[in-house]
Amino acid sequence: MVLGFVIAKISSTSWHLIHSTLYPHPSPVSTENSHLGASPITSVDARENRKDSIAEVVRRIQIEFAFQFSANYLASSSKTDESNISVNGTFLLYSNDPFSNQQIVVWRVNSGITYALICDTNENLSLAEYVLEVLIRVILDNMSQEMTAPKILLEADKITGILHVFLPSGTLLFMNHKIVRHLEKELEAILSAK
After folding, report:
1. pLDDT of 35 above 50
2. Where do the DSSP E strands lie in the chain?
3. Between 3.20.20.150, 3.30.450.60, 3.90.280.10, 3.40.50.300, what CATH number should domain 2-192 receive?
4. Which of 25, 61, 106, 178 sees the fewest Cβ atoms within 10 Å?
5. Is the pTM of this model over 0.70?
């Protein structure tokens, strides 16, 4: 099961969260100390916990990206622009840091924009990488212009529609090219109805 999908602008020195979707089942670590008589967590507190959890995931992706960039591109003699490279990776989030259960993050940087899936540890990682690749391609195909942070923010409804079709309720779908084409047609119907 996928717990979340994230889009962020990342460089080797900074990050900026652009879009995130958390499915209902993630449980960020609670700061509540019920045994001390603390008040229960409100929906505002839960939202802040989710935001903090996503920010921690993006921060860790930025660290991984910076490491890969420095290891692979700074050693070469030619100057490489960070926004033109494509790198990917996976890493483990341990229990209670930032979610209550262990999670695996599958991420890919494409033209300076990072896309990531936060998955259960028992999820098929090859399938998660393939679904992320398909999601990126479909998002790029459905954005009317160049992928920039403001453009992504303006077209958040398209991203929501894409996730609804290709990642329904956080479920990774086994897809071949025929299923992808069928889902693309379903997406076209949804987007044209708006």
Report:
1. no
2. 2-10, 15-22, 86-93, 103-110, 113-120
3. 3.30.450.60
4. 178
5. yes
